Amino acid sequence: MSSSITLFSTLAVRKALDDAILEAFTAETGIAVHTVFDPTVQLVRRIDAGETFDVMIGVTGSFDPLAEQGIVDLATRTAVARCGIGLAVPPGAPLPDIATKDAFVQTLLDARSVAYSVTGASGIYFKRLIEDLGIADRLNERATIIEKGFIAEAVVDGRADVAIQQLSELLFVPEAVIVGPFPDEVQHYTEFSATLAAGAGSAAAQAFVDYLTGPVAAAAYGRTNLLTVA
């Protein structure tokens, strides 16, 4: 079995991987995992630029066009986790009301600046959501729009007073305070899957994908605001 594999992974599952899964997998199998973390959109750009991988974890739907290009093997696509979107505020700030759709919208409108990403799955959904809610113009004229990264950093350094991102990614900025998930009426869950590169077919790569649906991984997902996929 190969002694190492290269993993391209979305940021949404990074904390679960970093905190537990990667170390446990290597300890159990002896297989090292070399990681590249980026939003799924950015990972696709890396692939377009010629970078290669053995396993990719990304938004489930993102693999279809890659399969059409012969880059991934859809027969190996395995759902591993899903995540909702949440809201964070600066340390010490009053916790805003986001219990209902109306309260959530008012919190956004009251914010000095709302920070969100333009390439992450959460930001792509949020951009569409505020357009559907009819508040995009008012929010975007003072929004802190970030290409990629951990958006809650913007509420810690003062650029914004509300940060929007996947709940699992908000954990990467422990100084920020996670208020909670979006209310049910406007919540959006993103499913993430692992898929082998076309032609990869190595036992090591498949072993890693299998590990991502096992008990160690499931426990790590639960600790990092991710939900397992039934």
Automatic annotation (TrEMBL):
InterPro entries per the UniProt record, alphabetical: ModA/WtpA
One Pfam entry name: SBP_bac_11
Domain of life assignment: Bacteria
Annotated protein name in UniProt: Substrate-binding domain-containing protein
Species of the source: Glycomyces endophyticus
